[in-house]
Amino acid sequence: MKEITAKELEQKIDAGEEVNIIDVREDEEVAGGKIPGAKHIPLGQIPDRLDEINKNEHYYIVCRSGGRSGRACDYLQEKGYDTTNMVGGMLDWEGEVEF
User: Fold this and answer.
1) What element of type H or E holds 20?
2) Residue 98 domain-assigned (yes or no)
3) What is the residue range of 7's domain?
4) How many domains does one find in the chain?
5) CATH number of 33's domain
6) CA distances for 99 relative to 16, 74, 77, angstroms
7) Which residues contact 7 (CB under 8 A, 6 or more apart)?
8) Residue 73 belongs to a domain
9) Contact call for residues 24 and 69 (beta carbons, < 8 A)
10) Do the Cβ atoms of 52 and 42 come closer than 8 Å?
11) Blockwise average pLDDT, block size 10, the chain, 99 residues
12) Which residues form the Rhodanese domain (predicted)?
């Protein structure tokens, strides 16, 4: 599984790179703020929402601490998607958040 730190992802965003981010946390967690532009798909809904994820794009997967996003990455990679897990999750995120 490919991994990226919160700081490395923040640097990509700050540099103006176009990144696709999926936040797999639950609604109440996302209410506390998410990375600007991130798409919110709770982990349990991913199998039912694969049509919202483009196999031709690369996605950074985010959760609270990196565990659920790791599981999401494993699942999506098995289905043929290109993903990278943000290790440390939102606990390590020091960049901007949107509500």
Assistant:
1) strand 20-23
2) no
3) 2-91
4) 1
5) 3.40.250.10
6) 21, 28, 29
7) 92, 94
8) yes
9) yes
10) no
11) 98 97 98 97 98 98 98 98 98 97
12) 15-98
